[in-house]
Amino acid sequence: MRFFIIILLFLFCTNIAASESSSEPMPKHEWSFNGLTGTFDRAALQRGFKVYQEVCAGCHSMKLLYYRDLLDIGFSEAEVKAIASEYIVLDGPNDEGEMYERDARPADRFISPYANDKEARLSNNGAYPPDLSVITKARKYGEDYIYNLILGYEEPPEDMEVGEGMYYNKWVGGNQISMPEPIYDGSVDYDDGTDNNAKQLTEDVVTFLKWAAEPELEVRKNLGIKVILFFLILGTFIYLAKNRLWKDVN
Questions:
Q1: Would you say residue 212 lies in a domain?
Q2: How far apart are CA 142 and CA 206, in angstroms?
Q3: How confident is the model at residue 177 (pLDDT cuts 50, 70, 90)?
Q4: Is 67 within 8 Å of 80 (Cβ atoms)?
Q5: Which residue(s) pair with 57 in the sheet?
Q6: DSSP 72-103
């Protein structure tokens, strides 16, 4: 009985928290990776990485990703080496016992924009920019929340006073956020000629963030389909065998 009471209280509190974040239902966006057979669009992932690199990486880290992981979204080894070499890593100690700087390698983790948490807060008026490695799994509504958050900046209502250094966003609890609007039409130029309006840029970067949080998603879905087919075939054979064994039993 106590277990069921705890479950009810948890669901009740979750509903309250969801209602406090916004008075409107969270809009659903159509994603290529949704559904039983959904997959990641490699071109969208590469564009999304470019948006992250040029817009988000100045403030947000992705500490769980290695540059070599970009091979999985279609970049060649030469491209990954070139991407990694754009960043500097503090390494060492060397034979003289000193730390030294070198170009990043594919085996290195994504370089964080700040040396430590204190520097991150100091550079952002006391607010700590969250790591984006698993952000779509860390937030309620996942990728839909991140998508709507990025596009949710508006002028505040006339009767609302926004705090200093804060911005109005319709999808954040309290409708105030310290992060300025990150993406506009034309914020990033795409090499493949894809339209770079704000919605497209946002969709691509959220697709990249979803892949970063669940790189095994496609493998898991493929395995799930195989398991379902296996049990369907096995169930059919068992059903036929049962009918054959019991057909003479009254």
A1: yes
A2: 10
A3: very high
A4: yes
A5: none
A6: GGT--HHHHHHHHTTSEEEE---TTS--EEEE
Distance CA 87, CA 101 (A): 10
Angle made by CA atoms 74, 64, 31, in degrees to the nearest 5: 50
Residue 231 located in a structural domain: no
CATH number at residue 134: 1.10.760.10
**Exposed, middle or buried, 25 (CB in 10 Å: 0-12/13-18/19+)?**
exposed
User: What is the arithmetic mean of pLDDT over 69-83?
Assistant: 97
- What's the CA angle centered on 102, arms 69 and 47, to 5 degrees? 35
pLDDT in tens, 77-99: 999 999 999 999 988 888 888 89
Range of the domain at 189: 39-61+130-219
pTM: 0.83
Give the integer Cα–Cα distance in Å for 101 and 92: 8
Give domain status of residue 32, yes or no. no
| Tokens 């057909």 sit on residue | 247
Return the higher-pLDDT residue of 158 and 21: 158
CB within 8 Å of 193: residues ≥ 6 apart: none
Residues 72, 216: contact at Cβ < 8 Å? no
* 98 domain-assigned: no
